[in-house]
């Protein structure tokens, strides 16, 4: 193996370890966010048992489902990191050659910025095709509020994938995929576009301090997350429709997304998501 391959392998492994630790650390926050997002679409959570907010959700989860239930769906979330990151960065470089070939970042700033947006969005959408079932399973497992045994809808990752594919076929594992593509293009375009552009404008990107990298990551993540959050809420609610008749369609979801920017109910969990991403980006910056 040459030095480049070894360096890539080390960075990839370090990123994987960092992701596993950070995702596990913030898994309880992630589950609270998911429950607030999908409770209105869940068959298990009746109207009289809806969570009233973040505090109510945090208090009731260990009381009703056990303390370890905070980590439901975390395994799928950790597993999907490796193929997602590998595909994202592999495709991003390919798309960069398409969108940024011959572009001078100093003299053609806006073209450089637009090229980064396009390559990031295209890479995210392409990689999503391969890892979507894992994201689907993570959402359904996290939304399962049964305490144990017969009360649980799924017993684990494999059981979730098998049950849904048996009842709805492979397409059941891709419920909400179209909306997810829209959201991931927006998120990845904003994230990679702004992050790569900001890093590229620094005098010495390779020797940037951890604090500066962390501040850039925080700013970029906040903007990208806020922009794509309504799409994230809609796609997760659509995931909850698998196994049922009359699931939401793409046209319905587009209408929901439009109103998502105006209705407060679609922004439930946004504060939780911000706290979750703060922790993840800090861990990633430290490892790198």
Rg from C-alpha positions? 20 Å
How many individual domains?
1
Give the full name of the CATH homologous superfamily: Mitochondrial carrier domain
Q: What is the H/E string?
A: HHHHHHHHHHH
Instruction: Label the structural class.
Output: mainly alpha
Q: What is the typical, i.e. mean, pLDDT?
A: 81
Shape: elongated
Q: Please give the CATH class.
A: Mainly Alpha
* Sheet having the most strands: none
CATH topology: Mitochondrial carrier fold
> What percentage of residues falls in helices of 4 or more residues?
over 70%
Which blocks of ≥5 consecutive residues have pLDDT under 50?
284-288
Count of DSSP H/I helices: 11
Keywords: Antiport, Membrane, Mitochondrion, Mitochondrion inner membrane, Repeat, Transmembrane, Transmembrane helix, Transport
Subunit structure: Monomer.
InterPro entries: ADT_euk_type (IPR002113), MCP (IPR002067), MCP_dom_sf (IPR023395), MCP_transmembrane (IPR018108)
Catalytic activity: ADP(in) + ATP(out) = ADP(out) + ATP(in); H(+)(in) = H(+)(out)
Mind sketching the topology for me?
Elements: H1 3-25, H2 27-38, H3 54-65, H4 74-79, H5 81-100, H6 109-142, H7 157-168, H8 177-201, H9 210-239, H10 250-260, H11 270-287
Helix pairs in contact: 1-5, 1-11, 2-11, 5-6, 6-8, 8-9, 9-10, 9-11
Your description of this structure?
- GO terms for molecular function: ATP:ADP antiporter activity.
- It is found in: Membrane; Mitochondrion inner membrane.
- The chain crosses the membrane at residues 210-231.
- Its main location: membrane.
- The chain is mostly helical.
- It is built from eleven helices and no strands.
- The chain has helices spanning 3-25, 27-38, 54-65, 74-79, 81-100, 109-142, 157-168, 177-201, 210-239, 250-260, 270-287.
- The longest helix is centred in the middle third of the chain and has 34 residues, at 109-142.
- The protein is elongated.
- It starts with a helix and ends with a helix.
């Amino acid at each position: 193996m040459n030095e480049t391959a070894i360096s890539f392998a080390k960075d990839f492994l370090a990123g994987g370890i960092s992701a596993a630790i950070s995702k596990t650390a913030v898994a309880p926050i992630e589950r609270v966010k998911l429950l607030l997002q999908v409770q209105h679409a869940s068959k298990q959570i009746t109207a009289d048992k809806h969570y009233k907010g973040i505090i109510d959700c945090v208090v009731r989860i260990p009381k009703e489902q056990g303390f370890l239930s905070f980590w439901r769906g975390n395994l799928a979330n950790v597993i999907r990191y490796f193929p997602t990151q590998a595909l994202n960065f592999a495709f991003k470089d390919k798309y960069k050659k398409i969108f940024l070939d011959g572009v001078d970042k100093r003299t053609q700033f806006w073209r450089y910025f637009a090229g980064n947006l396009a390559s990031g969005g295209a890479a995210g959408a392409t990689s999503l095709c391969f890892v979507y079932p894992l994201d689907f399973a993570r959402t359904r497992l996290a939304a399962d509020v049964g305490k144990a045994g017969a009360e649980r809808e799924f017993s684990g990752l494999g059981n979730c994938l098998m049950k849904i594919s048996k009842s709805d076929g492979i397409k059941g594992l891709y419920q909400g995929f179209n909306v997810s593509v829209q959201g991931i293009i927006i998120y990845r375009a904003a994230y990679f576009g702004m992050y790569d552009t900001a890093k590229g404008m620094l005098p010495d990107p390779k020797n940037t301090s951890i604090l500066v990298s962390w501040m850039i990551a925080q700013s970029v993540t906040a903007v990208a997350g806020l922009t794509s959050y309504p799409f994230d809420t809609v796609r997760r609610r659509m995931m909850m429709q698998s196994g049922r008749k009359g699931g939401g369609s793409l046209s319905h979801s587009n209408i929901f997304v439009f109103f998502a920017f105006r209705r407060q109910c679609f922004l439930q969990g946004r504060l939780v998501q911000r706290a979750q991403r703060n922790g993840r980006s800090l861990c990633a910056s430290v490892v790198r």
